[in-house]
Amino acid sequence: MKSSYLGHGKVILIGEHAVVYGYNALAMPIKSLQIKATVEPAKTMWMDTTGYQGPLFQSPAEYDGLKYVVKTMLAKAESQAAVKLTYTGEIPIERGLGSSATVALATVRAMNEYFKTALTEKEVMAITNHAEMINHGKASGLDAATVNSDYLVFFNRKDGPQTLKTILGATLLIMDTGELGNTKQAVNMVHEEVQNSTAKAANIQRLGQLADDTKQAWLNQDQAEVGHIFNEAQTNLASLNLSTPKIDLIQKMVLVEKGVLGFKLSGSGLGGIVIVLCRDQTVAQKIAAKCRQQVASSWIEEI
Q: Which of 29, 34, 38, 26 is nearest to 7 (CA)?
């Protein structure tokens, strides 16, 4: 007997970092980036991933959130049974694409089915979110909500996720800079800056306002306004020292091209991914080709 669950990644469109402080953010699922978690009987607790194959509870610290999920699910099932967890497919790690949240959610759901624990949706998300807290030090809940959604998610910590089904009518180019981000480092760095500077605190508040503005522009299908907001958000995020020389270089290469509406980093920053709002797929393909030497990979999503 075995059970599996196929999870997908995500990208934050606007509001990263601000969402940690209770402001709004907007994120979207990426169905083309997937990880499948499979649970099956074993003689000893075992894990098989692209990065680690071995005893589950002896895995490196980067898997601590996952270990929490497994221990919690075994306790919920009131079971001491050994299982093997296998992860197939891949979402690049430490890029802001939701890899840790996807793995946590997929594991909860696969183990829930395997052990027939009949967890409520609230319980599933609580376990997933706690794993994210372990992984990142301070997690808003946005990643977990978005990898659990089939639609755009407008989110704040107080109200939780709201889905948006409106289509903007543009194309989003997502590019992996090849630079590993570090969510915990970035969140801690911004927290220190916000504590010590009223100007930095105002930047965070403005990022939250920009998320509200993006939602309204999206509902109005105003692609140009969304692009303008992306550009302002990138300036704001760079002022928080979250950009890198490579991100700055890609920004200069991209914004001079006709049909590009906006550019920004996505996620925690200090590396990771950038997103480019393009008028259509032809523009997105042209930008991807132009930046091929600067990025590790890219994806195009119709939004």
A: 34
By three-state DSSP, how is residue 97 classified?
A: coil
What kind of architecture, by CATH, is found in domain 3-163? 2-Layer Sandwich (3.30)
The H-or-E segment that residue 254 falls in is: helix 245-255
pLDDT, one tens digit per residue, over 235-284 is: 999 999 999 999 999 999 999 999 999 999 998 899 999 999 999 999 99
For residues 10 and 91, give the distance between their C-alpha atoms in angstroms, rounded to a whole number: 10
Residue 251 one-letter amino acid: Q
CATH superfamily, domain at 166-302: GHMP kinase, C-terminal domain (3.30.70.890)
pTM of the model: 0.85
DSSP line for 255-286: HTSTTEEEEEEESS-SSSEEEEEESSHHHHHH
pLDDT in tens, 169-208: 999 999 999 998 777 889 899 999 999 999 999 999 999 9
User: CA 95 → CA 151, 177, 197, 283, distances in Å?
Assistant: 21, 8, 27, 24
